[in-house]
Amino acid sequence: MNIRQWFQSGTPWVWLNAAAVSTSIVMVVGLLLLIAVRGMGHFWPHAVVEFTYHQGPDQSRRIIGEIHDAEELPTTRLRAAGYWLPEDAPERITRYLVKVGNRDVYGADFFSVASSNMGPLSHPRDILVVERYEWGNFYGFLRQVKENGRVVAEGEGAWAALQQRLERAQRLHREIHVLEKDEIGAINYQLERLRLKERRYQLDGELTAERRTELQRERQRLEADYQAIQQRLQALYHDLGRDSFTAEVMTGEVVEVPLAKVVRIYRPNAMGPLDKIGHYFAKLWEFVSDEPREANTEGGVFPAIFGTVMMVLIMSVLVTPMGIVAAIYLREYAKQGPLTRLIRISVNNLAGVPSIIYGVFGLGFFVYFLGGNIDQLFFPEALPAPTFGTPGILWASLTLALLTLPVVIVSTEEGLARIPKSLREGSLALGATKAETLWRVVLPMASPALMTGLILAVARAAGEVAPLMLVGVVKLAPTLPLDGNFPFLHLERKFMHLGFHIYDVGFQSPNVEAARPLVYATALLLVLVIVVLNLTAIQIRNRLREKYRALES
């Protein structure tokens, strides 16, 4: 076989396609592995080092922190950047980025050092790593434990006393969180509902003396409950501010840290393998179950997970009937002619419209026009404060439903076209109407194709960010769209999204270096959420395909 016959046989193109697919798979797997390693490694308790760093012939300082990153650079570049280097320094030197923490003490979290100026590394077992609600990590050596300013433990017994008092502080934090977020949140919500109810009576001219008295009585009851909770909170905050500890930092200064500002304390250099594994999974659970803190660079991403999944589910509920109805009309009812072909071309072209255009349309039509009119008709008592005339999860879901509608329409139409004409004719011959034939024969058999369109829609919608920035997503949502307050599902509320969280932490964070590992971890989590949603839809599609395979044959 000569070269020409070999090309005509199609074998080169088979190998070329195989090479392209293999390369794509390797690149995707490599990217996922990079994200997984960089992201999941963030939760492991890294060793804390101590060394002497020489900043000049007669200048040196003690450094305590975690080695965060390393890169090898030419000596000339480091000198040009202002580093002091010895005369006999090699041509290339490793530059380390050390996380020294204590931002409230030093003013910065990280310190760059050249390896040629570093003294021997040591790993003292008694170095503390303190995760705080504010100012990031704290590194130092424990000196004393205090209660109301009085020293209660120091020396060898200080660590055990610190652990006991930290457990107490964490318990108080949990109680305060429940009171502030759940109980006080519910009371504030009910007070606002009472205010709107009274305003509604005023607008309708129905605010009688009896109703005013009833509303005032209910308001007094809620305010009494609020005052009782406030007194409990004051007592808890007083108890929480009781304990503190002092620690020596790398400058030799002794700093006092209140336990009210501490999330957890551990000594990574003294931890064994089992302790490190336990710490790792505790941090991982905190990441997926807690709220963010410290400008989203610490804590968890549960509100973003919840918002992403809820938005995708609402979008799926909205886009599925719209896509099915449109596809049924185009395939089963519309007269096949130039107009129908034009509609199909338009639907296909809509799939290529940039997503930000959908966001602008959603903001103008759904939020300002539709939401504004809903407020005028149904929520006049809340005006001028908007209820639905402001970005929220409902408008975000509707916008993404429009964005993914062409995919669902095309997939459903293709599924309807594959159903043999003989099945339709047989159903009609047995006395079924066209609607019954569609409902009981055609749609069930086309359901796998419908699910394929939904899978593609979910995969695209879950990762979209640009339109959501205009129609509902925010940096930090104080309350979830679903809670225990009637009507329980609040479609008008703004929400958090994993994709926007990645953008915010990666590009808007005031501390980019500290937030970088969290970007990888959140990106991996977003991929996992999309995979779980898609696998669920694929499983449903496979069951439907098996159910109707016999009928198709």
Concise overview:
By secondary structure, the chain is α+β, with helices and mostly antiparallel strands. It contains 16 helices and 12 strands. Among the domains are: 91 residues, no CATH class; 250 residues, MetI-like fold.
What does this structure look like?
The protein is an alpha+beta fold. Among the domains are: 49-139, no CATH class; 303-552, MetI-like (MetI-like fold, Orthogonal Bundle). Helices cover 60% and strands 14% of the residues. It has helices at residues 3-8, 11-40, 75-80, 103-106, 158-204, 209-240, 273-289, 302-333, 338-350, 355-378, 393-418, 421-429, 434-463, 468-471, 498-507, 512-552; strands at 49-56, 59-74, 92-99, 110-114, 127-132, 138-147, 150-154, 243-248, 254-258, 262-266, 292-293, 298-299. The strands form 3 sheets. Strands 5, 6, 7, 8, 9 and 10 form a 6-stranded antiparallel β-sheet that branches. Strands 1-2-3-4 form a 4-stranded antiparallel β-sheet. β1 (49-56) and β2 (59-74) form a beta hairpin. The longest helix has 47 residues, at 158-204.
